[in-house]
TrEMBL record:
Keywords attached to this entry: Hydrolase, Protease, Thiol protease
Gene3D superfamilies: endopeptidase domain like (from Nostoc punctiforme), SH3 Domains
Protein name: NLP/P60 hydrolase
Keyword ATP-binding: no
The organism of origin for this protein: Parasedimentitalea denitrificans
Domain NlpC/P60: 122-247
Signal peptide annotation: none
Molecular function GO terms recorded: hydrolase activity
Transmembrane helix listed as a keyword: no
Highest classification ranks of the organism: Bacteria, Pseudomonadati, Pseudomonadota, Alphaproteobacteria, Rhodobacterales
One Pfam match: SH3_16
Amino acid sequence: MSNHQIIQPVVDLLGQPDGPRERQLIWGEQVTVEDENNGWAQIIATKDGYAGYVPSAALGPAVQVTHWVSALATHVYTQPDFKSADLRSLSFGSQVQVLSQTDRFTETPEGFIPSSHLSPLETQLVDPVAVAELFLGTPYLWGGNSRLGIDCSGLVQASLLACGLPCPGDSGPQERALGNYASPNGSGYLRGDLLFWKGHVAWVRDSETLIHANAYRMAVALEPLQPAIDRILDQGDGPVTAHKRLF
């Protein structure tokens, strides 16, 4: 086994070589490589223990990352100049190694990133719902974990990791691992609560509104809370299975 990191902006994590996408990994994320064969690496993601396969070309040697992308997305430029050629786009949560920094631009081994788009690795945000709100309008993508496309559990995970809170990658394990069941005695809905269905999860934004990545809108969207519960039931996806309180 060996330690590596992702060196592509986004890469699909597959259940088997050439198989369907299970989740995604983004630039700088740390992984353990268990095996490599025919251009495929069998890996385990450090952030959540998710296992699967990625192309070997998506991996590079692990380096000491120092900062993370705290803007929804950013560009990496060839020079410390926004008019210079851009090399790639990085999504929220991507991790980089900083070599030097000025007020305007930060130098990394891959190029220059606007300094205002980066935060030191130890920086933790405090409101996961506010993180989810950054992603409003992001296209829905089954198994997605980036600004280019994200699903319900990917949104919850990105929100919690940015706040320094561990989180599994899929909604089923999230339901089992996160928070405590809210009181059944009508304690109402509070910002930061999570509602779970079989195969789906949503943040409570306030007592009357959900924010979630959903296939109904094909985007991260706000939706009235009780009408959303009714809609999901009416479309055949079942009732709420858990109302969890994290804070």
